[in-house]
Structure formats: C-alpha cells, structure tokens
Amino acid sequence: MNGDGKLSCWNYDAVETSCRDDPLKDGTMVRQYDVGTGPNRYSHLYTLYRCQAGGEMTELSHMFIHEYTYCDGAAPSTIYGIDGEEVDEAVFSARFEALVTSQLPDRSAWTRVQTGADMG
Fold first, then answer.
1. Is position 68 within any domain?
2. Which residues are 48's β-sheet partners?
3. Is 21 helix (H, G, I), strand (E, B) or coil?
4. Domain range for residue 82?
5. What is the C-alpha to C-alpha distance for residues 21 and 49, in angstroms, rounded to an integer?
6. CA–CA distance, 115 with 120 (Å, rounded to integer)
7. Can you tell which superkingdom this protein's organism belongs to (predicted)?
8. What is the domain count for the chain?
9. DSSP-derived secondary structure for 47-107
10. Is residue 94 part of a domain?
11. Could you give the CA distance from residue 92 to residue 106 in angstroms, rounded to a whole number?
C-alpha cells in the first residue's frame, strides 16, 4: 500500500496452477501457491514476507496444507505444516487466522484495473 492507504502493486502468476501475492494490513505480504503436485495431492503453500527498501524479500514464515485423495477408496487425508514442522489443524488455523486472515485488507482497498476486455 502506498502512503494514502491504496494498493500500489500486486502479482498473479498462473504458471504453477495459481500463485498470488496479497498485501496485509501490517505491511507483510503473503504469497499463495495452489499446486497439484501429483495425481493424488493438492497443496496450498503460503510464504509470509516483507519487502525491504532495497527490493530484497525477507521471508518470515512458511505454511502449507497438503490434501491427499486416494484411488483405492481410502479416506482422504490432510497434513498441515508451519515452518517445516507438521502441526494439527487447530494450531494451523489459529496461526493462519492471526498472521493472514485477520490481516487481509477490506476489498474496498482494491482498485479494479481495466483490461483490454473491459474497453471493448
């Protein structure tokens, strides 16, 4: 966000299924990758970081959710992790709420950018 509280840049990359960077109220950014990493695994990967004045990124935390489905009828399973350590869903949810969900700016902070499709 710039000095008057408006979002000044954002990123979306569809090369790896989907990837986006969202600014958070506390000045942190969250990069989310949603990736199919195998025939029976879908992952949601989150990196929290801050941009430094010189353009460098300082990574603060890594979080993930790996969802597994099985063709043999076995029950699906989900694995949660924070900074390389597996955690249960309650721990993950509390940390994600504190660091990401509660810090997302209201959608009114976003300004829609016109594309060629909008102008036609």
1. yes
2. 30, 61
3. strand
4. 11-106
5. 10
6. 9
7. Bacteria
8. 1
9. EEEEE-TTS-EEEEEEEEEEEE--TTSPPPEEEEEETTEEE-HHHHHHHHHHHTGGGPPPG
10. yes
11. 23
Residue 84 has pLDDT above 90, yes or no: yes
36 phi, psi to nearest 5 deg: -85, 115
Rounded Cα distance between 40 and 60, Å, is 29
**CA–CA distance, 119 with 65 (Å, rounded to integer):** 39
- What confidence tens digit (pLDDT) does each residue in 13-57 have? 555 578 888 889 998 999 998 888 667 888 999 999 998 888 788
Q: Please state, in angstroms and rounded to a whole number, the distance separating the CA atoms of residues 68 and 43.
A: 9
3-class DSSP assignment, residue 20? strand
Kindly give the pairing relationship between strand 57-68 and strand 41-51: antiparallel
Could you tell me how many residues make up the chain?
Answer: 120
What is the three-class DSSP state of 10?
coil
Structural domain includes residue 58: yes
Mean pLDDT calculated for residue range 52-81: 90
Q: Which two tokens stand for residue 56?
A: 């460098």
Residues 56 and 64: their CA atoms lie apart, in Å, by 23
- The pLDDT, as a whole number, for residue 1 is 46
Per the listing, tokens 């109220």 go with: 25
